[in-house]
Design a protein that fits this description.
Length: 413
């Protein structure tokens, strides 16, 4: 290969390729030198009085792989002297930092590959030590975190009719939780705060004035009282919407409680059949295939009570999907509650009590139809991150890693 084309492939315009020193199955060694003769003095900023004072040992720098071979650049470590300032210095290359053995392109590519992956996987791809990749990744995380946070917060402040989503996820289920704040319109995660208790939420708002400067049109929440109290204090004019996923979960849970009651009254064969296929009662009927519909119809024939509670659940889905405006949604919600009152079961009565307590927040869905569906998907991404990083103990690095993980695909996209 002609040496004049190697530099284009390496993307290093400041260097001139002299020769290929060696090439084997795994490594490629290339000798190069700077195009310029002199550099500006770091003290006076001029190259008029700069002279060469010899050279140190050859500097070997790892660069991006070429043809799947590890590529090493051999460049001179030239000593320079400014006769005006009497300052001695060594030639500074743009493609590599001082006292570094890996080029800037190699470091940026390695860090990019380590995001969304593990250091061990990136090290195998780059044919580099795991400790080196881990160090490069750790150095890149704070810079990327600052860039992404600035961008997502600026986008949230400029978004018209901003809609926020607030939900928690477990670090250790039943013991420790984090709360995420999300921009649903921008599809980004704004921040992550420890805990989910009201005191912790209020403390966050006091310590982060940028959060209070947001002007959301609506906030989507689950049915935790602490979240609704906190949002009403921070954004009293925002519409609080009970997340459809969580609300529907209460209804499905009552259906399954009724199923368990009916199951205990059946013969052993029917009981086993109902238990094995109980998940067919959860999704809407139109989403089932032909074979699933046959089994589902057999389940409903076991008991009129089971059929009536299933129809009540389906009516709730229809109410969510088909209410054209807020006024009709209020009337439809009352009719749905009256339908549930005719079902004589403790689980249904308990669900209806919850629904009536949160009536305003549930009906507010029909102000603007937003849910935390994207937030739930983001929680799966966070759980994968936690498994890959073995629950990083450093809180700042843990938070930075999650915000990068949840936002980079959206920012880069």
């Amino acid at each position: 290969m002609q040496t004049q084309y190697i530099n284009e492939m390496l993307n290093l315009p400041e260097l001139k390729i002299n020769q290929v020193l060696s090439i084997n199955a795994d490594e490629l060694h290339i000798e190069a030198e700077p195009l310029c003769d002199k550099q500006c003095c770091p003290c006076c900023g001029s190259d008029q009085a700069v002279i060469r004072k010899g050279s140190n040992n050859i500097r070997i720098v790892r660069h991006l792989s070429v043809f799947e071979k590890k590529t090493y650049l051999h460049v001179p470590s030239t000593r320079l002297l400014c006769t005006r300032c009497k300052a001695g210095f060594v030639w500074m290359y743009e493609f590599v930092g001082p006292k570094q053995r890996y080029s800037r392109l190699f470091r940026s590519h390695t860090a990019e590959q380590a995001f969304g992956s593990t250091a061990a996987h990136s090290a195998r791809m780059q044919q580099a030590p795991v400790s080196t990749v881990q160090r490069i990744h750790n150095e890149a995380v704070p810079v990327e975190y600052e860039r992404i946070c600035e961008q997502v917060w600026e986008e949230a402040k400029e978004t018209a009719d901003l809609v926020l989503g607030v939900d928690d996820f477990a670090i250790k289920k039943g013991h420790a939780y984090n709360t995420g704040i999300h921009n649903l319109k921008g599809e980004t995660m704004l921040d992550l705060l420890p805990g989910r208790k009201l005191e912790e939420l209020r403390s966050y708002a006091q310590e982060h004035p940028d959060f209070l400067l947001l002007n959301p049109k609506a906030v989507v929440l689950n049915l935790a009282r602490a979240y609704h109290t906190w949002i009403s204090e921070c954004f009293p004019n925002a519409i609080r919407i009970a997340d459809r996923f969580h609300v529907h979960g209460y209804v499905i849970e009552s259906v399954q409680e009724v199923r368990k009651t009916v199951q205990n009254t059946l013969s052993s064969r029917a009981k086993a059949h109902l238990k094995a296929n109980h998940r067919l009662l959860n999704p809407p009927a139109e989403s089932l295939g032909e074979e699933s519909k046959k089994r589902w119809e057999a389940l409903l024939n076991y008991s009129p009570l089971l059929r009536s509670v299933w129809e009540w659940k389906e009516a709730f889905t229809t109410w969510y999907d088909c209410s054209p405006d807020l006024a009709i949604a209020r009337l439809g919600f009352e009719r749905w509650c009256e339908q549930g009152d005719r079902i004589d079961h403790a689980a249904v009565r308990s669900a209806l009590k919850t629904m009536r307590n949160w009536k305003e927040e549930i009906v507010n869905y029909h102000h603007c139809r937003w849910t935390n569906a994207t937030v739930e998907g983001r929680h799966n991404r966070i759980k994968a991150f936690q498994r890959r990083h073995y629950f990083t103990r450093n809180r700042s690095r843990y938070k930075a890693g999650i915000l990068i993980e949840c936002n980079r695909h959206r920012i880069l996209g």
